[in-house]
Amino acid sequence: MQFKPLVSFKKVNNNLSLKLNFTLAGILPAMKLLSIFVVKLIRFEIYFVVVRIGWRQSLQNMLKTWFLLYLIYFFRKKLW
Hints:
Layout: H1 15-56, H2 59-79
Helix pairs in contact: 1-2
């Protein structure tokens, strides 16, 4: 995915706006990657907490846990 520069190179006269342009072009993909990583980490935390609570409780709560896991798995494409 490519980001269009905010300032066209023809209109750039001073060095500052050129540096700002390159900085934004570098920051935006990095922020996208970071957000993907954070979302995966949050999903892992949800899975871990749900499974851990399920194993400590009774069989009925474990079945609820696996149902929750199924719901998370089913809706994850819509949420993330």
